[in-house]
């Protein structure tokens, strides 16, 4: 609302922009997301179809995500979730570590591929699943709906790193969660709307899932009345698994602004037909 000369704007850096804000800039040449994800930007149906959009690709973002996933895996492997519950009940119950041998990573983009390689390098059996087939050394890759069940069948830990698109919204519903082996653990560090909330709650209550770590939610901040806050077996973190590094982001944004002025293609341009 503070833009006094909309005709003068040729480049916009956005994140969860108000609906219609971009369409009100008639001479805009390109858009730049301030993060790796662009689903909140593309949800604006007034967005001009031909407008190029770039996202941030940040090695610091990848390192942050891997640190988070390492911590979560070891939290469950060493049974800190169980020992935390035991502490509240003043129970002394030593147990050996969980047997987490097989991981499945959903989504094999920049972050998903890095996670799959990382855990394969640590000696875990790793499967990867995405909309189209990838080839990653040391990782068994699957693609498409027809290979989803096979991709997740052996997973002790399922890591969701999918982009949020029309095809992935509510992807982890009752039917797909039922394809996991009993006692699996879900980690969602992608977007909240990829998981059907009610299906997840049911899977935890029936014991189909042993636990779930959620860093992302349909509505953020998570509403105080949401059952995730109080459901046994859920670990919540406030969308901190991978935070954009300002220095890295600013350098990419400045470079893309220069490229727009020179008539060159954007770095890390999004394929808007795919949504990422």
Write the topology of this structure.
Blueprint: E1 11-14, E2 30-33, H1 39-42, E3 53-54, H2 59-77, H3 80-88, E4 102-106, H4 110-121, E5 125-130, E6 139-143, H5 148-152, E7 157-160, H6 174-177, E8 184-188, H7 197-206, E9 209-214, E10 234-236, H8 246-262
Parallel strand pairs: 1-2, 2-3, 4-5, 4-7, 5-6, 7-8, 8-9, 9-10
Helix pairs in contact: 2-4
Structural summary, described in words:
The protein is built from 8 helices and 10 strands. By secondary structure, it is an alpha/beta fold. It has a 7-stranded parallel sheet. A 3-stranded parallel sheet has the order 1-2-3, with helices on one face.
Strand element count = 10
Global mean pLDDT: 96
Give unreliable regions as ranges.
none
Helix content class: 25-40%
What is the structure about, briefly put?
By secondary structure, this protein is an alpha/beta fold.
Salient structural properties:
single chain, 276 residues, alpha/beta, seven-stranded parallel β-sheet, 8 helices, 29% helix, 16% strand, elongated
